Sequence to fold (435 residues):
Amino acid sequence: MRRSYTGVPVSRTFSRRTLGPLLAERDPEIAAAIQAEEIRQSEGLELIASENFASDAVMEATGSVMTNKYAEGYPGRRYYGGCIHVDEAERLARNRAKELFGSRFANVQPHSGSQANMVAYQAILEPGDAFLGMALDQGGHLTHGHPLNFSGQFYLPVAYGVRREDERLDLDQLAELAREHRPKMIMVGASAYPRLYPSAEIRQIADEVGAKVVTDIAHVAGLVAGGAIPSPVPHSDIVTTTTHKTLRGPRGGLILWNEKAYGKALNRITFPGIQGGPMMHTIAAKAVCFREALDPSFAEYARQIVANARALAEALMALGFRLVSGGTDNHLVLVDVGARGITGRDAEVAMETAGITANKNTIPFDPEKPMIASGIRLGTAALTTRGMRESEMAEVARLMDAALRSAGDEAGLARIAAEVAELASGFPLYVTPAA
Ligand SMILES: Cc1ncc(COP(=O)(O)O)c(C=O)c1O
Fold:
């Protein structure tokens, strides 16, 4: 029998994990919100590129007694007693992260990807220092230099971007900017770039100008872990990531590095620099996620995410959509819906009404403001977790196309929503635990 990557058999029977009776009794309002969210996730098609569905085991660890424990410090050197068991969990998480990504060192404490990035910046830069980061309207993340983010407030971002003609990273521009500004750091990575980064070439440029390379693999971490795309770990001074996107773990951050000399600064800046007590329940869940990702089935999952993204891209292009850069090499597809005469904002609303969740996104050289945008960003990690494959991607493309054509037509969108629910019902998310 075919199984989804959460281990649930793929069948036509719709089932869902139910909350235990406790919460419904003690806090019916929150229980109702969680139950409704579970139904939304189960019955819709999740195409937000930064989201995924963590396994039952990851969620069990997240909801465990480790949430009760204060453990400031690091294993063996804590500011609190009673840390013997959380020490074990953190050691396991750290060792598994190192094994998974082939790095010599890891810090599993960052609460999020943004915190992991803040640590990396502080380890390399002084306030006011320049760094190179991907332009935010061309795929870069807030923490790569947004004026309202710490990265844009405390440091001096210099933006590199993509070429107008093929919407791929402009390595010549990056090299020119590096020679001109001689930054101490080049931040590599993005939230909305469907292609691969040439890590070895960027390393060369960095070495030429004496810059450190920080690679933020928040989006593609699962693809790197599963070997579906090349690893930037050997070419980077520091690698930061989230654990909840393609990596499919709990919501959190992670820092990896190879040179011992960075360790003191990275660990000290994480705690006590920018964080207090680590979230030990989340760290335990990260360990569970890393173990899952070390299983050979995860390599297969990662490969399928990329195959699904390619299939989705091809199906969309066959329906006449223009894709940024003409396709994808990872989990992400950026659709120029503006070329179809609809804004990203309106497309997002039409799709959501039809049960397809995605987000509006600027495209390179976008004539629209970010809150309106000309693009829709799609990702295949979550649907792949449900067990969907290439043939379902063609169906998803058809449903998306139909939703955009029905924008503003509530009855039409309701009919598509029923088709979406029917497709989703064949790929159950969580099973109801046995009584
Ligand atoms: C490239 C990149 N870096 C960092 C982050 C920040 O992660 P978090 O939301 O956990 O702070 C994100 C999140 O979207 C991201 O896409």
Notes: Residues 50, 112-114, 117, 141, 143, 189-191, 216, 218-219, 242, 253 surround pyridoxal-5'-phosphate (CB under 6 Å).
